[in-house]
């Protein structure tokens, strides 16, 4: 049985999303046990509304405070020690839960997780990694916003962690790793990227070299590494582009009766397309590099998306991702590959 602690009060929607998502995940995974962390009276009322009583696989852990979505991370870390986010991570630290999932304030979650769980030996900073769809399947991209400025050594650490994550979860012995840059030629890029390129070529990773932005979705890679500033911009551009394409398609199919008829005929294809690019199927970004498993759900996640984040956490615990990263890093430290 694997236990996961949920910050049930986090995100834009709170218990109205986290509670039904928890019930959905429990119905699919018989080996899963969930702890709803938050205000007892609110969570109990939500469960009663859904006629789902507490039991051996679903319990409530009272937390009187909530971290606001716009609250400064330092303030949350200093003054919200009884928040649902903090207590969910504390449960991982205490060994009561094997993972924590939150849709709450990203900065506060990263700061709290790093303070409570600490980073693995050899890792300077944790990174945020998630999967994105590609024409060949999907790719893991990191960092997506945790570290705006990075050294070449830290980018090498991200590459190692991403490679181990893919090996552990997907069973690939030598994941293909690329470094995001403004071109594929060796003369392109800033000094940090060029130095990182040298470190990656000297490592025993399956490093394929520079990749450009378009290759995030068209390349045949398993891991793409960049600093958090670039990664977050790339992610937000992708989300905006997807929303624009979706809106344009709806507008065109509603333009007149002929286009409405064409839309009705094309409906099965459109549904299949939407399913392939549905961002909810990729919800759940891992805070990788910590002594424990913590996943960040999108703040505006709906029930389907938050449930996916829970199942992603379950998969990472099942594959012992932090332990495997720690073990691999230990061997690489011995080879001098990690600063």
From TrEMBL:
Superkingdom, natural source: Bacteria
Annotated GO biological process: fatty acid biosynthetic process; phospholipid biosynthetic process
This enzyme's EC code(s): 2.3.1.274
Keyword annotations from UniProtKB, A to Z: Acyltransferase, Cytoplasm, Lipid biosynthesis, Lipid metabolism, Phospholipid biosynthesis, Phospholipid metabolism, Transferase
A GO cellular component annotation in the UniProt record: cytoplasm
Primary subcellular site in the record, as a coarse category: cytoplasm
Subcellular localization: Cytoplasm
Catalytic activity annotation: a fatty acyl-[ACP] + phosphate = an acyl phosphate + holo-[ACP]
Pfam family of the protein (one): FA_synthesis
Pathway: Lipid metabolism; phospholipid metabolism
Keyword Membrane: no
Protein family: Belongs to the PlsX family.
Function: Catalyzes the reversible formation of acyl-phosphate (acyl-PO(4)) from acyl-[acyl-carrier-protein] (acyl-ACP). This enzyme utilizes acyl-ACP as fatty acyl donor, but not acyl-CoA.
Protein name listed in UniProt: Phosphate acyltransferase
Species assigned in the record: Sulfurifustis variabilis
Gene: plsX
